[in-house]
Structure formats: C-alpha cells, structure tokens
C-alpha cells in the first residue's frame, strides 16, 4: 500500500455511537468522542493535573523528554498520574475506554502507562511516530496497543493539538525518512472529549503557536498483555489502588497474570 493511498482519508467526525467509533478506528486509525467528561468532573480533573504539574515544578521534579522536545521549556510531562489523584483512576479504567480496548486490542490487556502532556505558549512539536515502536517490523496485521487521549483543555490547531496522519496505521510500520516531516492533521476537540487511536497510527504533539494558552491532555496507553508495561506498577502504584481494585483493574495492572509474571505458578492478588 502506498503512503498516498493509506493517508488519503480525513479525520472522522466526532461520534457517540460505539459501532461508529470502532468503524472510525478501523478506517482512519482513530475515533473522536465528545462529552465524555463534563461539568464539575472535567473541572476537578483538570485542576488535579495542573496541581500535580505545579507541584513537580516547585520541587524540582519537572519532567521533559529530550527525545521529544530537546530543551523546550514550554512542554511538561507529568508521569504516573494514576498515583497522583484518584480522579485519574476514573480515566484509566473508564468503562468506555476499556470496552473499546477489548474490541481493538483484545483481552486480557495491560494499562502500560498513563501520563499527561501540557504544552505551553511557544511549545514545540514532537517527532512523528507510532506508539508500538517497540514491536519489531514487519508488524502483525493487528494493533498491539491503543491510546486514549483525554482532552482536559480544548485541543486546537493553534495550541498544539495532537496531529495525526489518518490512515497511516494501514502501512503497518513506522514513518521512514522524509515521512517523519509530514505535518499531519490537527485533532481539534473540545475539553472533555477523548481521542482513541490504535498503536500503528502516526502522530505527534503539535506546535503551540499561541501567546497565552496551555493545552493539557492525559494519555492512557494500553498494550497487549504479552508486552512489558512502560510503568512499573509494582513499584510506583499507590497501595490503595491495588487494595481496592476490581478483578478487571488487577488484570490491567498486571497483578492477575495471564501466563506471564506468575509467582510459584500463580498470579499475585
């Protein structure tokens, strides 16, 4: 399949219809779902993230990934938000996200990581990539993971919204050479929306060209259970999350092993 053919599509329209979400992910590589977080829930979740980001800055723990942003001081990564506030549990284990995960990736699956990206005025863009870069090529003809981006601010082309290359998942490989310079299409969505994209879709953070806007998103990354999770939940997870976790949550966090990571032949529960 040629690049032109694979990327001929445009962004799908936002939808609340589950069947349409799955059809959009299959065709375009992503689905846009509006109004998943609303009202006070959205406001409290946004406030919790910005408090965590400010706490990291105040304590000299601010994180930036050199691979992504070099010395760009306008972009901040907040790691392991799952352990920062119970509100982020509601994102990581949201019924809609897990329902789509079971359809797109299969079950059992792992919550590999959940972190936040805040891009500020003048923030630069990320390198174009696909999230399953850890999978040797040629890739299997099925996604090995799925990302759910929670828009806690409005995502606009001007404030650094995630940019995607629609249809690129059908190429079944990472971008190569000059393809890494593709600009892609900005995924514009109001705060409270989620953007669900499968792990082969090419994407990147966009440039924030505004003078005074920040754009915060929380990204929950799930993978097939055959891969090691990015976050070591056994060391970094708040104990009470495991203590009160449902059976489904224990699977996603790797405590209910499915043939891997068992202790004396059994899962740790």
Question: Explain this structure to me?
Answer:
This protein has 269 residues and is an alpha+beta fold. The chain has one domain (3-234): Jelly Rolls (Sandwich). It has helices spanning 3-6, 18-28, 39-58, 66-69, 87-92, 95-104, 233-236, 239-243, 247-252, and strands spanning 30-33, 75-78, 109-119, 145-151, 163-164, 185-186, 194-198, 203-204, 215-224. Strands 1-7-4-9-3-2 form a 6-stranded antiparallel beta sheet. A 3-stranded antiparallel beta sheet has the order 6-5-8, with no helix packed on it. The protein is globular, with a radius of gyration of 18 Å. The chain starts with a helix and ends in a 17-residue tail after the last helix.
Question: Quick gist of this model?
Answer:
The protein has helices spanning 3-6, 18-28, 39-58, 66-69, 87-92, 95-104, 233-236, 239-243, 247-252; strands at residues 30-33, 75-78, 109-119, 145-151, 163-164, 185-186, 194-198, 203-204, 215-224.
Tell me the series of helices and strands, N- to C-terminal. HHEHHEHHEEEEEEEHHH
Shape: globular
The overall average pLDDT, rounded, is 92
The description of the largest β-sheet is: 6 strands, antiparallel
CATH homologous superfamily annotation: q2cbj1_9rhob like domain
Strand order within the widest beta sheet: 1-7-4-9-3-2
Query: What class do helices, strands and sheet pairing give?
Result: alpha+beta
Contiguous uncertain segments of 5+ residues? none
CATH architecture: Sandwich
How do the strands and helices of this protein lay out in sequence?
Layout: H1 3-6, H2 18-28, E1 30-33, H3 39-58, H4 66-69, E2 75-78, H5 87-92, H6 95-104, E3 109-119, E4 145-151, E5 163-164, E6 185-186, E7 194-198, E8 203-204, E9 215-224, H7 233-236, H8 239-243, H9 247-252
Antiparallel strand pairs: 1-7, 2-3, 3-9, 4-7, 4-9, 5-6, 5-8
């Amino acid at each position: 399949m040629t690049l032109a053919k694979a990327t001929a599509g445009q962004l799908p329209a936002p939808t609340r219809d589950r069947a349409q979400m799955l059809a959009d992910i299959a065709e375009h590589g992503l689905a846009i779902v509006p109004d998943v977080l609303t009202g006070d829930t959205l406001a409290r979740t946004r406030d919790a993230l910005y408090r965590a980001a400010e706490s990291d800055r105040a304590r000299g723990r601010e994180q930036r990934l050199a691979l992504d942003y070099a010395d760009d001081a306008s972009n901040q990564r907040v790691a392991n938000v799952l352990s920062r506030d119970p509100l982020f549990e509601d994102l990581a284990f949201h019924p809609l996200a897990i329902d789509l995960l079971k359809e797109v990736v299969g079950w059992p699956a792992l919550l590999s990581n959940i972190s936040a990206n805040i891009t500020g005025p003048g923030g630069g863009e990320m390198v174009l990539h696909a999230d399953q870069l850890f999978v040797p090529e040629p890739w299997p003809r099925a996604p090995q993971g799925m990302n759910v981006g929670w828009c806690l601010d409005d995502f606009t082309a001007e404030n650094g919204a995630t940019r995607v290359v629609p249809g690129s998942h059908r190429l079944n490989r990472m971008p190569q050479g000059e393809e890494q310079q593709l600009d892609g299409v900005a995924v514009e969505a109001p705060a409270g929306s989620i953007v669900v994209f499968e792990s082969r879709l090419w994407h990147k953070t966009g440039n924030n060209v505004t003078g005074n806007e920040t754009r915060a998103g929380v990204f929950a990354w799930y993978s097939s259970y055959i891969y090691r999770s990015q976050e070591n939940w056994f060391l970094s997870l708040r104990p009470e999350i495991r203590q009160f976790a449902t059976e489904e949550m224990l699977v996603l966090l790797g405590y209910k092993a499915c043939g891997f990571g068992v202790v004396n032949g059994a899962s740790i529960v």
